[in-house]
Amino acid sequence: MLDKLKNVVRKDKDVLRIKLPRHIAISLDGIENWALKNGISYGEAYKKAFLALKSTIRSQVKLNIPVLSFYVLTENYDKENEAYPYFLDSVAEMLNDLSSSEFVKENKIKISILGKWYNLPGRIVDAIKKVIEATKDYDSFFVNLCMNYDGQEEIVDAVRLIAMQVKAGKMDPELITKELVKENLYSSYFLPPDLMIKNGSRKETSGFFLWDSINAKIYFTNKLWPDFDRTEFMDAIKDYQKGD
Asked: Domains in the chain, ordered, with CATH?
């Protein structure tokens, strides 16, 4: 056991010697499939999923990675799905935990929510406002939770904002640039991701950071999100460090 632990520490040190990504974006796929596969309730599956999320935030801090983003809920998710109430219960609990977390406070982790989260049920909106308020002054690390998010809608909303400025006579259409579009995205404040981790059997990005991901390296793993652990996180980073 001790030899195994030493080996893990040695591998971590090897990773730290090489350039690390500044922004890692991760999809939380396969939670419901994991529940069915293991004969576990949706509620327990989501609890385990959000424990994995919080564990990954700890790895972020340990490795000194500035920005970490999670694709928690797509905007087109079927809200009539029988698993949805369990998701809501678990995500509310997670948000409240993050609001009062000593780890978040000590490491000054700012939590942001990207997407049309204001259209979610009231108790989730309240929990979101609470965690945003609790961490608004933190600036050492950044965690983005993409909720009720759609990558195409993010671009459409950015274009709509720019169009409103043009219509109001505040902007010349000839001055519209890629940089201007970026400035109007939900993720405008953050660097584009260097590394995207896509778990589960589907080898697609599902529109996650559709505009920002153009130069990101994508790491695919067959692991369903509740099984995602530090070892898989480190493997993804090592794959990123290999380059093309």
From this structure: 22-148+193-241 (3.40.1180.10)
